[in-house]
Amino acid sequence: MPSSDAASPGRRFTRRVEDFDCEHCGRHVRGNGYTNHCPACLHSKHVDVEPGDRAADCGGLMTPVAAGMERDAYFVVQRCGRCGHTRRNKTTARDATAEVLKYFGRPIPGR
Ligand SMILES: [Zn+2]
Ligand SMILES: [Zn+2]
C-alpha cells in the first residue's frame, strides 16, 4: 500500500474536515477542520472533549450562553443541553459578529 503521508512531513495532527447540518437553524455548514460550530447561530454538537478530538459520545446540542473577548479574539461559551458541559469556543472571521455580540455581558459559567 503506498503511503500518502510522505508528501506532508511534520504533520502533527489530523485536521478533520466535516460538513454538517446545524441542528438549531438547519444551515448546512462546511467544515474547515478547526471549528464545528454553526457560523450563523453559534450552536454546535457536543462531540469533542478537547477541540477536534471527537472523543465525547454525548452528542447533545451545544447552545451559546455567553460571549467575551480575550486578547483580540472573541469567544463564545456554549453549554450542552444534554449533559450541561460548558466550553469556550474561539470564533472565526466567518462567524456572525452580530450573533456573537448578543451574548456579551451574560454571566460566563465556570468563573
Ligand atoms: Zn445554526
Ligand atoms: Zn454533552
Automatic annotation (TrEMBL):
The segment(s) forming the RNHCP domain are: 18-100
Q: Which domain of life, per UniProt?
A: Bacteria
Protein name in the entry: RNHCP domain-containing protein
